[in-house]
Design brief:
The complex is a heterodimer of chains A (167) and B (170).
Chain A: H1 2-8, H2 18-38, E1 63-70, E2 76-80, H3 88-102, E3 105-106, E4 117-126, H4 133-145, E5 147-155
Parallel strand pairs in A: 1-4, 4-5
Antiparallel strand pairs in A: 1-2, 3-4
Helix pairs in contact in A: 3-4
Chain B: H1 2-8, H2 19-35, E1 42-48, E2 66-73, E3 76-81, E4 84-86, H3 95-100, H4 107-120, E5 132-136, H5 142-154, E6 160-162
Parallel strand pairs in B: 2-5, 5-6
Antiparallel strand pairs in B: 2-3, 3-4
Helix pairs in contact in B: 4-5
The chains are: A alpha/beta (167), B alpha/beta (170).
Chain lengths: 167, 170
């Protein structure tokens, strides 16, 4: 390095850019990954509930997310994960398919001879302005599919006005 | 390397000009920094549906059940705690109420009512907690149902039922 500098000019000061470029690339990769994660789920304005607990998923726990949101025509749609809009009847069929694909059941202590219960979890992410009647149909679909572990998503506190960009 | 180049007759060193790459990299960095919206941590209110599809599991309704009714009357959500009507909030509290401009029921009233019922509740079988029934019309915004559930969670009530809709699910 020193000899190189001496070869060119004696007074030139060079800065080694390598660590800076390393860090900048690292930051880019970080932001790229984070950006992709945040658009994976449907845009839902969740209600606020300070009693809602943020839970770390267990390793063997499989969670299905049911989203209830508004589409572009302001119509309420029910989606399983990021799928196409479903009617309650279709949701039931989809959930039954997921239960069969998951294939893990536990005994029903209340009714040992009856249908076994799935170990699947369902999380409902419903827009706070959507009709609460959707919950009836989602609960009904879960129950018919043999899923009994259902949670309702909420955020603990609101940091910014979610309606600020709406007309 | 340098020696080989010199042998070829190239006296200068080969340097890549990094400036343009760094420009582009900074541009990308700034784009992603601005485009990123961090995800809020989402919590859940856990619930367990009746394991027998709700039919044979139904127990006789105890004499003193706390029933919160939510109705939608012309865009306005009206709540009843058993026989007494819940007053409306004097100020628009949540972002949803401010967005719609319609006041919702006073949640402090519901909370006081449930905690009063809970303190008076004597379970018939010695254990068990106050059963709370949330009866909501299907047009009521989901937010109010979660608000009532939140109050129940704060009051440590675990026996919560949603009333059946009038029309069967089929």
């Amino acid at each position: 390095m020193a000899s190189k500098r001496a070869k060119k000019t004696d007074y030139g000061v060079e800065m080694d850019m390598t660590p800076m470029i390393d860090i900048v690339f690292l930051l880019i990769v970080f932001f790229m990954v984070v950006t992709e994660l945040s658009v994976q789920q449907a845009v839902v304005i969740l209600p606020v509930a300070n009693e809602a607990k943020v839970e770390e998923p267990q390793p063997d726990q499989v969670i299905l997310v049911v989203n209830v949101s508004f589409d572009k025509e302001n119509k309420q749609i029910i989606q399983l994960m990021n799928g196409s809009p479903l009617t309650p009847k279709e949701l039931e069929t989809e959930l039954k398919g997921e239960v069969a694909a998951h294939g893990k059941f536990e005994d029903n202590p209340n009714n040992p001879s009856g249908k076994k219960l799935s170990t699947l979890h369902v999380t409902i992410r419903c827009d706070q302005g959507a009709d609460a009647g959707n919950i009836h149909s989602i609960f009904g679909a879960c129950q018919k599919a043999g899923i009994y572990q259902v949670s309702c998503s909420a955020i603990n506190e609101r940091l910014e006005d979610p309606y600020s960009d709406q007309p | 390397m340098a020696r080989r180049k010199k042998a070829k007759g190239d006296p200068g060193e080969v340097e890549t000009d990094m400036t343009s790459m760094i420009d582009v990299v900074f541009l990308l960095l700034i784009f992603f920094m601005l485009a990123t919206k961090f995800k809020m941590p989402e919590g859940t209110l856990r619930s367990y549906l009746p394991k027998n599809r709700g039919e044979s599991n139904s127990r006789p309704i105890l004499s003193e059940t706390c029933r919160i009714t939510l109705m939608n009357q012309g865009g306005q959500v009206i709540a009843w705690a058993d026989q007494s009507q819940v007053p409306l909030n004097e100020q628009l509290e949540s972002d949803y109420e401010q967005f719609t401009g319609v006041a919702g029921p006073d949640l402090n009233f519901i909370e006081d009512y449930i905690s009063g019922m809970k303190s008076r509740y004597v379970p018939l079988d010695g254990n068990g907690s106050l059963p709370v029934v949330i009866d909501f019309a299907k047009e009521v915004p989901y937010k109010y149902v979660i608000d009532v559930l939140n109050i129940c969670a704060r009051q440590e009530i675990v026996n919560i039922a949603f009333a059946q809709p009038e029309v069967p699910l089929e």
